[in-house]
Please model this.
Amino acid sequence: MKRTEPIEMGRVIAPKSLVLIGASEDYAKFGGRILHHLVDHGYEGQIYPVNPKRSDVLGLTCYPSVADLPEIVDLALVAVPAKALADTVEACGKAGVGACVIITAQLGEFSAEGAALERRIVEIARSYNMRLIGPNCMGMIVPQANLALSSTPTLRYAGQMRKGGVAFVSQSGAMMGTLFLQSHDHGVGLSGMVSIGNQADLELCDFLEAFIADAETRVVCLYIEGLKSPERFRELCLQAHAAGKPVLAVKAGRTEAGSQLAKSHTASLAGSYSAFEALCRDCGVVLLDDPDAMILAAGVISANPRPGRTNTGLICASGGGAAIMADQLASRGLSAAPFAAETQGRLEQDYPATHANNPLDLGGHKGGLEFGIFERAIESVHADPETGLTAYVMTPQPMMPQTLDHVIEVWRRQGKPVVLVLNLSRFGAEQRDQAFAAGLPFLTRTDDLYRVLQVYRELSTMSPRVQMPERPADLSAPTIEATGFLTEPEAKAILAGYGVSIPAATLTTTVEAAVEAAESCGYPVVLKGVVGDVVHKSDLGLVKVGLADAEAVRAAFSDIVGAIETAAPGAPVRIDVQQMIPAGVELIVGLTREPGFGPQLVLGAGGIHVELLRDVVQRRAPLSSEDVRDMLQDLRIWPLLDGARGQAPMAVDAACEAISRLSWLGDDLGDRLQDFEINPFRITEDGAHALDGRGTLS
Model:
């Protein structure tokens, strides 16, 4: 029976019934392993094993084919050889199956023939209003539905699945299994995990949307190799932010090597990592570089209330450990501010004034040891009005069971987040069981603590761009007819059309004309050779600066003529005579278009050292002046613009206005934009000027 409409995503994640094609009792086989997992973890829906050679499997009635099932099922698990895949998908469609989870691999990620088969099964599925997950995936783990529909052997190790508020959508099936293990071993409760593989039909955004709508989910984690729809991703992440559900992500493709591996793994084009990073910033996604840290941070966030402030009150049982933590926090820009005076006063009942510090060393108390000292210290730090989070790092210490019981009691009040680190190795089995029983997630390394605190800081400071800026009323889109490589004069003509200040300039072809132009402009001047397809003019001797008189202009003109002949033999002599702008801070300002991500504005430390400094930030264009200022403040050279060490501040407002206006060029050019660059863009005390420019338009 063909479905009249596709199955709802809620039923995909939490199906009421499923069919397992190729069911077996042999745990060594895919069909056997998954069936064991479903039964062992207590799936409460209806399971229909299909195996024409068996009458029953694990006590369940076995059916010869999907066509013989007594009802229409929500989900089918398909793990068949590629040659049988199309027929199997067709059979499922005819039987009215809602969605197929396709484990079969070596399709689009493997060969052209595999890609063609992948397209074929999508066509078949759509003809029956049936959805596909995968292929090349490892299924789903949904604790809230007691659904262990995956072949990962970690499910057999885990015993009872931990239920909670963390969802995970992954383009890597093996990573889903690994993070299931990490979450289980650290007490992280899950709402669901989905391996999406090649995303031939249902894609990451479909499951992201489903988990945002899911009442049990509080935090969504993503492992991404490539996005099929960046704009939809942006809209959904803004919805998640508005709903108070943080989205954490790790993306492959930070390097060229990572991009190539992502493509070979799930046939995903990773795209520019910097464009993805800019997208995450715009839509409120916290981007991490380590999947383990992501799932642990999500577990902590899910189990705690949101903090009112980001200062952390830290407690440990080691003076040396406290000192190291203070160093590590400071090096990461994290705040462990001094306790409030009232907190210090309470601590001084049991600790010398010199020891009532943040982080607090529990062992530095006065007099003999009794549990009340630890209890009062934990209460005092947690109640401190200057801190928004409490972190307890437990290393081997006296009275561990009683101390942890009190930490758990404090956490259960849900007044502010409590982050627990059990840095105990094999010595702490009893404490881990205590935390498991209480439902309190924990970390085992202080390095993970710092990462969690960094995530909290990002969540508290991020400000997603809900709307794009309004176009300046006086900025109309000029007609730009130029194509191909833009020389400096051509690029500057475009800049002038967008209201960006450029130095006065005269294009000359003879030395006498150059001297005349210099006299008219006023010394000192700059001479630049104009040659097509040349990017780094200074490196080729095509730029001469600080020319103070006619003699200097003549000598420079002669040198540049020789440089033109060397750089582009036979090219005509064209030399720009330009006004020399006073010294200032130099930036590079660039525009590019990233497929799927739209126009991108890049800002960085500029001039001749741009490749060496690599001090660069990127955002999606267009941008407001305020957005540009935020970008400038993210640069390491910002203090130079802001008047560091008593120097006069630069004309940042003028720079922000000019760059904001230029950012509309990317929107106006659309797909014609390949790249456009100003380097240097010089900001002085009195203004901001584009000293050089180039571009490529299709």
